[in-house]
Write a structure and sequence with these properties.
The chain is of the alpha+beta class and 548 residues long. The protein has a domain of 169 residues: Succinate dehydrogenase/fumarate reductase flavoprotein, catalytic domain (Flavocytochrome C3, Chain A, domain 1). Helix content is 33%, strand content 19%. It contains 17 helices and 23 strands. The strands form 6 sheets. Strands 13, 15, 16, 17, 18, 19 and 20 form a 7-stranded mixed beta sheet that branches. Strands 8-2-1-12-23-22 form a 6-stranded mixed beta sheet, with helices on both faces. It has a 3-stranded antiparallel beta sheet with strand order 3-5-4. The relative contact order is 0.17.
Length: 548
């Protein structure tokens, strides 16, 4: 078997096939493994998994089916979606049994529409167990690191559970002790490694899969970009790469990450206002182009062709451009608002990142400009985007122009090019609502997911606090994607289909190369990685039974 792409889907398929006794070659066009997974939160949406029941949160496939029936548009792709629901738990079990992947249930992480029938408030989403990257030995340098902005002190990752300890280290002896232990471990790791080796989130998931490839003897070839799929007697038989023809008697699995950085497909399928991508830059449509040349069909049905997130942009000290995704760390916390070019709120800031950008794209003034505002109390308490909270200073961010600050709202409006009276009126209305704990305009903090994004220690509404402590601060937000939803048409076994709906023998797709079973919706955390791992499992199950 030949796998194209070294993200979660590709590595999972390669590891499972190798565990079945197949000879596997994995081709990754960049110099590191991990893809977008390595820089992600690593959440995996797995309905009906056994781990949820183990913590007293039993889930069922039927409940998830009812939930998706209310949140995923239309009946298109129903067979593949049903296959995902039926096999997600089995895929998790197989990966834990045959690879080094290990997951733990997240007890509190609501689906994004928690008031819909069948929604889960926790347990349905899994996260990878932390991994010691030192176990990779000399190969650790070949694992793609997280975004620098998601590490502290030059290379330390912090797990979700430890974020609260870092925020409270000056107010809690328990938190201070925990932070001291983490810092001590990080210091010891940096004596022998270029960054911390305690891996969490998506980097732990990618690291565990990479370790599995090494243990199972997968032939990993970095800096190998596939050039063409070779057809013989109507089936995909080989891959051409760097002048070599690699036979694939069992099949080829496409897992190159979608087309987030392919200019032609972006121009064809994505709104012009969504100019940026937070996905890994290697995701440039390679698998989709190869499959279409071999007769595969591109499926563009669904509400959206990408999974959206608001981002901010800045230049790092090394001169590289950073695209920071504002997913869960700041928008829903008490003391922020988002305003458009008219100086007005246009959205419930605590909605999912996908729905936030949908609102940006609907609002003409937000398409022209969107800003995320906070006061100084908020900045010191929570930070803003990549700007860390106290005791770190925001001055470098102000000097760079990324953070715009002013002593009062009128001055901030002038600096942003907004109407001062309009902005002051917007903030005044919001502050009145925040003091009462009720957002009369958009209902912020009105459901379990929004409250999850807030601050549980803040009352009466964990998502609302007035902007009252000068100076005031703002950053610009832009519509962007976390990955693409449109992709190759595929069946319930991940087999790529031609325009007539017939499978192309020997050709499979998973991850973002495959059209999303969510049809452009984003109903919960981990709805990209969940199907990616499941269809990697289903592809291997199908091709393992094929004659070789």
């Amino acid at each position: 078997m030949v796998v194209l792409g070294g993200g979660a889907a590709g590595m999972a398929a390669a590891a499972l096939a190798a565990a079945e006794g197949l000879r596997v070659i994995l081709l990754e066009k960049t110099g590191q493994l991990g893809g977008t997974t390595a820089t992600s939160g690593g959440m995996v949406w797995a309905p009906g998994n056994a781990k949820a029941a183990a913590i007293g949160l039993p889930d069922s496939v039927e409940a998830a089916r009812r939930y998706l029936g209310q949140t995923v548009p239309g009946t298109h792709n129903a067979a593949a979606r049903a296959a995902f629901l039926a096999h997600a738990a089995a895929a998790i079990d197989a990966l834990e049994a045959r690879t080094e992947l290990r997951f733990m249930p997240v007890a509190s992480y609501p689906d994004y529409y928690p008031d819909r029938e069948g929604a889960a408030l926790g347990g349905r989403v899994l996260e990878p167990v932390p991994f010691d990257g030192a176990k990779l030995g000399r190969h650790f340098a070949l694992l793609r690191p997280p975004l620098p902005e998601f590490m502290v002190f030059g290379g330390m990752m912090i797990g979700r559970a430890d974020l609260v300890h870092f925020r409270n280290f000056a107010r809690s002896f328990r938190s201070a002790a925990r932070v001291a232990r983490l810092l001590g471990a990080y210091g010891r790791q940096r004596l022998t490694h270029s960054r911390g080796t305690t891996l969490v989130l998506g980097n732990a998931l990618a690291g565990r899969l990479f370790s599995s490839l090494l243990r199972l003897g997968v032939d990993v070839r970095l800096n190998h970009a596939a050039e063409r799929l070779v057809m013989e007697d109507g089936r995909v038989s080989s891959v051409r790469v760097r002048g070599e023809t690699i036979r694939a008697r069992r099949g080829v699995v496409l897992a190159t990450g979608g087309f987030s950085h392919d200019p032609a497909l972006r121009a064809e399928l994505l709104p012009k206002a969504a100019r940026f991508s937070a996905a890994h830059s290697g995701n440039s449509g390679d698998g989709i182009r190869l499959a279409r040349a071999a007769g595969g069909a591109l499926d563009t049905s669904g509400e959206d062709s990408a999974f959206w997130t608001p981002v901010s942009r800045f230049i790092r000290r090394d001169g590289s451009e950073a695209i920071f995704p504002h997913t869960v760390t700041d928008r829903g916390k008490p003391g922020t608002i988002a305003v458009n070019a008219a100086g007005q709120r246009f959205v419930n800031e605590a909605l999912s990142y996908h729905e936030f950008v949908r609102a940006m794209l609907r609002d003409e003034a937000a398409r022209r400009a969107t800003f995320l505002l906070c006061d100084h109390r908020f900045l010191r308490r929570y930070g803003l985007g990549p700007i860390p909270p106290f005791p770190f200073s925001p001055k470098p961010w102000q000097r760079s122009g990324y953070l715009v600050s002013a002593p009062d709202l009128a001055a901030l409006a002038r600096a942003l090019g907004l109407n001062a009276a309009a902005l002051e009126a917007t903030v005044s209305r919001f502050n009145n609502d925040a003091r009462a704990g009720i957002d009369r305009a958009f209902g912020r903090g009105s459901d379990a997911y929004q409250r999850y994004l807030g601050d549980p220690l803040h009352r009466p509404n964990p998502c609302l606090a007035p902007l009252a402590t000068p100076p005031f601060h703002a950053i610009a937000l832009y519509a962007a994607d976390l990955g693409t939803a449109a992709g190759l048409a595929a069946d319930q076994d991940a087999r790529v289909l031609n325009p007539a709906g017939q499978p192309i023998p020997g050709l499979y797709a998973c991850g973002n190369d495959m059209h999303s079973v969510m049809n452009g919706a984003y109903p919960g955390p981990g709805i990209t990685l969940g199907p990616a791992l499941t269809f990697a499992y289903l592809a291997v199950r199908s091709l393992s039974s094929a004659s070789g």
